[in-house]
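Annotated sample (chain length 142).
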Amino acid sequence: MDWRAQAPPQVQDDYDMLLRDGVDAAAQILAESDSFAPFMLVIDQTGRKTLRRLAQPRVHGGEQTATSAMETGTDRSTLRARATVFDVTVSAPFAGSAIKAVLEHRDGPAVDVLVPYTATPDELRIDFTAADGAVGTGRLWG
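Output written by the structure step:
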């Protein structure tokens, strides 16, 4: 992804950690269920990472509504990065189920990453090699 060439090392490191941890958390849920409710991983100014979950397992109104439900009024000033993670079905750049991570950083571009997965009663397969990322729209710091 070309955003890496322009992002400072701290942004790259934070995004790598948020993506890895977000996909790992989603995989743990998917291993026991056929889907997962949106959740958010945040990194505060000191580097402490916290998981946020919705009070309700599903929020009607789409990704922006779910994201807003997990924000606090001080996030813009107290966070340095966050990943909002969704279970989605896509038709492009590949077809099927995906873990979508919306990555945002106060010092870098927003990046949306789709990581395909297939789940059967016997196996969960997450295909990081087919992950697709693109510069997204900043919501908190945009």
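Annotation: Strands lie at 39-44, 49-53, 79-90, 96-105, 111-119, 124-126, 132-135.
Annotation: The radius of gyration is 15 Å.
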